[in-house]
Amino acid sequence: LDSLSGSPGPVITAPAKPDYGAVRKAIEDVLDVDGYDDGSYGPVLVRLAWHSAGTYDKASGTGGSNGATMRFAPESEHGANAGLAVARNLLEPIKAKFPWITYADLYTLAGVTAIEAMGGPTIPWAPGRSDAPDSTACPPDGRLPDASLGAAHIREIFGRMGFNDREIVALSGAHTLGRCHADRSGFLGPWTNAPTTFSNLYFQELVNNKWRKKRWSGPVQYEDKSGELMMLPTDMALIWDRKFKPVVDEYAKDEETFFKDFAAAFSKLLALGVPGQAA
Ligand code: CCH
Asked: Which domain range does residue 156 map to?
């Protein structure tokens, strides 16, 4: 490993049979912490996995989870990644305990482990990512979606990775988890009342709740009558677009199908550009 960076650091020998189950267990052990957000680091770990992979460009084969380039500036400082140091730092002691796992495998495995621990589907995941030695392979800024835009933008961003409409809606269901933080993205609040449980509640809220523009000095976002739940403009695009909407309806009614489609799409996302894991 160290021969890659040319530095004479300690030689890390991978165990004959790396115990990914032990790494998963260590991740599970740091998830729940009273006082952090809604009591779990699960959602921010899912966002880390997604942002590490969502930079993939199918045409050039650049970006993606392989390399774990988000450890380096400028990618670590891209606006879309604001707040993700929280997730990367949380994983440092686990990386220290299991030095044979690459950051790239760890960031993606943490997302998978968090989803499963929060009640979500089993996500097929395989190791095999390596760590880039420096920032040379960082993708350019602007590869991740801009929440203030609409359906055409989402299709362009996810189409670049190789996803179709159905996969886009399935992946968006991850917003059933976690919340927006004013000091990270500028947006504020959770999408559901159960932000640490993986479910189809996000789709139920989109379809069954009433959404209106929030009146405030922040960026355009939508709120329900209680003012406690929120949707981003890109979330609203899923019910305003005539091709996305039927899929939202389907997932709102049928959690099993959502789980199945999400597991396949998230697994594909984390495999993009990984040697030997061509989607
Ligand atoms: Fe997302 N997301 N996301 N998102 N996201 C944010 C938070 C989370 C967009 C924008 C935002 C996906 C798709 C999109 C999570 C998972 C996924 C935030 C708030 C914004 C803004 C960040 C903050 O302030 O902390 C946009 C735009 C799109 C697509 O158009 C996909 C795909 C996934 C995963 C499969 C998760 C989880 C969070 C919550 C993070 C937390 O800290 O609670």
From this structure: 151-265
Distance from C-alpha of 230 to C-alpha of 234, rounded to nearest angstrom:
12
Global confidence as pTM: 0.96
Atom of ligand 1 nearest to the CA of 43: 37
Does 50 qualify as catalytic in the annotation?
A: no
Select from 111, 143, 175 the last residue of a domain.
143
Which is nearest to 114 in space by CA: 270, 276, 220?
270
pLDDT confidence bin for 221, thresholds 50/70/90: very high
Q: Which two tokens stand for residue 192?
A: 């559901």
| Atom number of ligand 1 nearest to Cα 188 | 24
Q: Ligand 1 centre from 239 Cα, in Å?
A: 17
Q: Is residue 28 in some structural domain?
A: yes
Q: Please pick, among 51, 125, 175, 211, the residue that the annotation labels catalytic.
A: 51
Q: Using a 6 Å cutoff on CB, does residue 84 contact ligand 1?
A: no
| ipTM of model over 0.95 | yes
Residue 249 clears pLDDT 90, i.e. is over it: yes
CATH of the domain at 27: 1.10.520.10
- 106 lies in the same domain as 204: no
Structure tokens belonging to residue 26:
């260590």
Are 268 and 262 in contact by the 8 Å Cβ rule? The answer is: no
Task: For residue 175, indicate whether it is catalytic.
Answer: no
Q: Looking at the domain assignment, is residue 275 inside a domain?
A: no
Give per-residue pLDDT as tens, 75-116.
Answer: 999 999 999 999 999 999 999 999 999 999 999 999 999 999
Residue 272 inside a domain? The answer is no
The tally of domains found in the chain comes to 2
Q: At what angle do helices 103-117 and 255-271 cross, to 10 degrees?
A: 170
